Amino acid sequence: MHVSLRERAACPLYTAIGVIEGRWKPMLFQRLSDRPRGFGELRRMLPGVTKKVLLEQLRQMHADGLVERRQLSPASAGVRYTLTPYGRTLGPVFETLWCWGSSHLARRQAARGTLVPPPVNRS
Fold first, then answer.
1. Per-residue pLDDT band at 8 (split at 50, 70, 90)
2. Strand 37-38 vs strand 79-83: parallel, antiparallel, or unpaired?
């Protein structure tokens, strides 16, 4: 069965997946769940991410209303990213996915998992 683009666009599940998909978005959510962070700090916390990709993922999260970008004083010429109240509503979603993924890894008797701790829900 073929799913049309129109059907996907109208599907809440595809919409949710589209918002959170991306190699770095779950880790960005986790890193921002405890406090605001600067771009450089996020980049250091995510070894392997390129500047271009990190910026792209943050812009997407900002466009979706999940992340707020605050310009610091001109003297510091930096920015801080923080989860918005709306972005924090994803906390239970990521916790549920984390639990499901952990169960799935155990079920498959997987030899590898993730080194990233689960997101902190601060709802």
1. confident
2. antiparallel
